[in-house]
Amino acid sequence: MMNDPRRRLTEAVAGRLEAGAALLRRYGRRAQGNGRTLILGGVRSGKSRHAEQLMARHPYVVYVAAGLPPSDDDPEWAARVAAHRARRPVSWRTVETADLAGALREARSPVLIDCLGTWVSRVLDEVGAWQQEDGWEARLDERLQTFVDVWQATTVPVVAVSNEVGSGVVPPTVSGRIFRDVLGALNTAVAAHSDTVRLVVAGRALDLR
What we know:
- By secondary structure, this protein is of the alpha/beta class.
- The chain contains 8 helices and 7 strands, in the order H-H-E-H-E-H-E-H-E-H-H-E-H-E-E.
- The protein has a 7-stranded mixed beta sheet with strand order 3-2-4-5-1-6-7, with helices on both faces.
- Helix 1 packs across helix 4 and helix 6 (116-126) packs across helix 8.
- The termini are far apart.
- Mean pLDDT is 82; it is low at 19-34.
């Protein structure tokens, strides 16, 4: 069993994810867990860990995983998902879905959404953005607006994690630019209807609201 390549990969990814945990425990501040909180950050910034710490006070949390489910076709992604799962409290319930609005609308307990970036990627694929199918913009706008409306109306404590995409260079591909523009606009809309907005940089959380 110890020589299982997938297990070794999972352990390696878990080690990388754990590397910034000490800094987050030292510098992360625990919110009251009420209202709507948006956590922004770059890759390996510690944003997911910070979001999990904010929800740690609740005995029961619905963890909404918005990215693609793990599969045998991408063992590295499967290892990342496994590492994230392993560090969640056993009392949390994980829901893997692209219907973020539906999951949040039905919630009766605190919710953690991780993350809006992977969700946007899934939605862009589902509405035909990559192939530039007719009407994809209207279908996309409907999906995004529905989520923002539900986010604004929710009454349960909710934390959403998202990628900050405004600090890099202009992507060289059409798909990259679409993703950046759509996610940037979504982050702005969600932030406008959030009680708390934080930016996580190198394991340190900065209050934006």
